[in-house]
């Protein structure tokens, strides 16, 4: 659901993907559209299993085909459709103009090479500099991400670093070639709160310095409130709501978004139990025919079961895929109790 008033670095339209070519198998990712502009942060939020990471891996060209099969859609990065590029063309962009921070640095970093060698390899691949120059630039990146004693850490192996330091190494590697777009897949997962705040602050500062656009994938609404310009709420492979961060926090419209908001612990005196959303994300082979959230939605009607809802414009760039929207006109204010 892109914003037509911005010139995006990345614009995804109607992207659909499945892991089977058989007729009648539902799309795992269905009709996904979003965009992100220079210096902006788009957060894609949702539960595990909603298709966030699969979407990011598809954009990076890192899904094996087969089994992955793109059903339709485009993804234009700096005017070029990523899905139409050859593997060699993708390799020239990946790690250079387009970079990714993966969810778990311990499995993403090669245990057999030092962190300096791994950062330097990316620099040498795209900048064509000598080994000594690449080492100096890798050292500068470690300084940039504020790793203590970078001269020593440069020759350390991943297992010799803490989780927070490994994540900083991943950030240094992703930003080494000053990418135009950074995709960050839950970069603060498994980090304690203090380190998480430091990593987020680091990414925001580096983004401000370089003008890099960022797609941040997360399930943490606290992170969303901290860093997002725009938010796409994803459920069962579909974007069910899209808008500015103020739109989503001040006026959530989709029952799934409202349920997620209701599950956030409040600051101050606790009143009653936190809300829960009953059930779980459906498996691909059991995807509902109509609205994919209908089996878990306390407000579902027969039309929700029968047909997928259209996108509705609420105001500005705020859009929602729900038959009931805008909720103020069709239902009483939706409170946490409906999801309890």
UniProtKB/TrEMBL annotation:
What name does UniProt use for this protein?
A: Dipeptide ABC transporter ATP-binding protein DppD
The keyword Cell membrane is assigned to this record: yes
Q: Which SUPFAM superfamilies is this protein grouped with?
A: P-loop containing nucleoside triphosphate hydrolases
> Which GO BP terms sit in this record?
peptide transport; transmembrane transport
Domain ABC transporter positions: 12-261
Gene symbol?
Answer: dppD
Query: Which family is annotated?
Result: Belongs to the ABC transporter superfamily.
Extract the GO molecular function terms from the UniProt entry: ATP binding; ATP hydrolysis activity
> PANTHER family under this entry?
DIPEPTIDE TRANSPORT ATP-BINDING PROTEIN DPPD (PTHR43297:SF2), OLIGOPEPTIDE TRANSPORT ATP-BINDING PROTEIN APPD (PTHR43297)
Q: What is its main location?
A: membrane
- Judging by the UniProt lineage, the source's domain of life is Bacteria
Which keywords annotate this record? Answer: ATP-binding, Cell inner membrane, Cell membrane, Membrane, Nucleotide-binding, Plasmid, Transport
How does this chain sit within the bilayer? Peripheral membrane protein
Record-level GO cellular component terms:
plasma membrane
Q: Which InterPro entries match?
A: AAA+_ATPase, ABC_Ni/Peptide_Import, ABC_transporter-like_ATP-bd, ABC_transporter-like_CS, Oligopep_ABC_C, P-loop_NTPase
Region forming the signal peptide: none
Cellular compartment(s)? Cell inner membrane
